[in-house]
């Protein structure tokens, strides 16, 4: 078996060792593994897609999610893992996989072996072009395995509907009774949230002796936590939104209200109430960078500015950089709890495992704790589509803004 990267424009590709996986975009399969003659291919080949092999078919499916970078990345990851496992571990194309093969793959996800072939060595994330890149960082948790199979089931169902495959090998999976939707557990209690805020307010950058870099880093941490909590934004929404997305309009009573226009999952746009507190924090953050307190309409500066390098101000942070900032903050907060004594160890572990999405859940939970109407929480978070008539319902928008303003606050101790 020979797995080859896509050839460069100036010459043919060189073979890679067959034991090592290759990222999907560089993968070229020999005819026997291409799926052109897969045993599960639809017999009449009258496909609704112009795909003659598995890689082309998978590419067509992934193209449907091109408008959502986060979804595309997650779906590509799961498809990539399955194709590489199928050709390297089984010596079979994707379009020849059986139900029994998928059961074996489910077990493989819980323990990808041999680890040298499948699992990244060390904790540092590598570029997909790096020779030591691997498709796994370690074994998947049960919840992640279920999510992977859900994604793969969607792939197989679509390929079957497109008449590329004769059937969906995952359709025979044992049906489980749909459980009652559990309460959100990955969020911070009010007590733990106070610990996180106190941690930020005590960062070295807040001291009079702080360096410029420390000062700007502390300001960025505070602003990031503020916009994630008060706006209920996803990480991808923070990195993909500019300061020019803030705008002001008068309500039906002539009161000026600020809003933040966000494009979220599925390329859907929603308006997030920018409360007085959020606007004050925005001004505070901009002043730290020597900017005017209020952004200009259409301003292209990202919500999160680089700590150094004035020339890079138009370049936003990546999601991985955002997560590293949060990991630092939560790590410091967890350390402050552990310093209180062993009885705080369990709570410290909760903080240490928190992420950006925890803050979204935290914001939603705290809003409902404070009796914010669930319809307003839904619309703030973009959990449902916004009706095409909502542009005329300014009074409802104003009520949502007022409820958010009055009852959902972050309450930083230091105001300057």
TrEMBL record:
<protein>
    <submittedName>
        <fullName>Integrase/recombinase</fullName>
    </submittedName>
</protein>
<dbReference type="Pfam" id="PF00589">
    <property type="entry name" value="Phage_integrase"/>
</dbReference>
<dbReference type="GO" id="GO:0051301">
    <property type="term" value="P:cell division"/>
</dbReference>
<keyword id="KW-0233">DNA recombination</keyword>
<dbReference type="GO" id="GO:0007059">
    <property type="term" value="P:chromosome segregation"/>
</dbReference>
<dbReference type="GO" id="GO:0003677">
    <property type="term" value="F:DNA binding"/>
</dbReference>
<keyword id="KW-0614">Plasmid</keyword>
<keyword id="KW-0132">Cell division</keyword>
<dbReference type="GO" id="GO:0015074">
    <property type="term" value="P:DNA integration"/>
</dbReference>
<feature type="domain" description="Core-binding (CB)">
    <location>
        <begin position="56"/>
        <end position="160"/>
    </location>
</feature>
<dbReference type="InterPro" id="IPR010998">
    <property type="entry name" value="Integrase_recombinase_N"/>
</dbReference>
<dbReference type="InterPro" id="IPR002104">
    <property type="entry name" value="Integrase_catalytic"/>
</dbReference>
<keyword id="KW-0963">Cytoplasm</keyword>
<keyword id="KW-0238">DNA-binding</keyword>
<dbReference type="GO" id="GO:0005737">
    <property type="term" value="C:cytoplasm"/>
</dbReference>
<dbReference type="InterPro" id="IPR044068">
    <property type="entry name" value="CB"/>
</dbReference>
<feature type="domain" description="Tyr recombinase">
    <location>
        <begin position="183"/>
        <end position="407"/>
    </location>
</feature>
<dbReference type="GO" id="GO:0006310">
    <property type="term" value="P:DNA recombination"/>
</dbReference>
<keyword id="KW-0229">DNA integration</keyword>
<dbReference type="InterPro" id="IPR011010">
    <property type="entry name" value="DNA_brk_join_enz"/>
</dbReference>
<keyword id="KW-0131">Cell cycle</keyword>
<dbReference type="InterPro" id="IPR013762">
    <property type="entry name" value="Integrase-like_cat_sf"/>
</dbReference>
<keyword id="KW-0159">Chromosome partition</keyword>
<dbReference type="InterPro" id="IPR050090">
    <property type="entry name" value="Tyrosine_recombinase_XerCD"/>
</dbReference>
